[in-house]
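Annotated sample (chain length 123).
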Amino acid sequence: MAERRRRLGDWGEAVAVAYLAQHGYQVVAQKWRCAAGEIDIVAQRDGVLAFVEVRTRRGVDPGMAAGSITGAKRARLMMLACLFLAAHDLPADTPWRIDVVAIAVASQGRVAIDHILAAVEET
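Output written by the structure step:
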């Protein structure tokens, strides 16, 4: 079961990268890791860095995937974004946000993608 879930997640990340590229984003990093965790995708468009969390689920509603991000995950994503900026010596005033690309895969193989800009904000 874990292998199947990992393959679905990897497939979803590849779909998200293609989607972002089609919408004018330049992918800066994929699966960026540090001791605190992983950022699925870091992309840039119009001078703004987007730290992208990809959520892939089976079903017909991408909202189900987006809704699976807990408060703890939101806090971790904020921390990871700050760690990425520091690790790459980017200025503190670098514009950035955390997006979610939610992907739903229906049983018929139809794919729905929802790109939620600034889905995670500081609280």
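Annotation: The radius of gyration is 14 Å.
Annotation: The first helix runs from residue 2 to 22.
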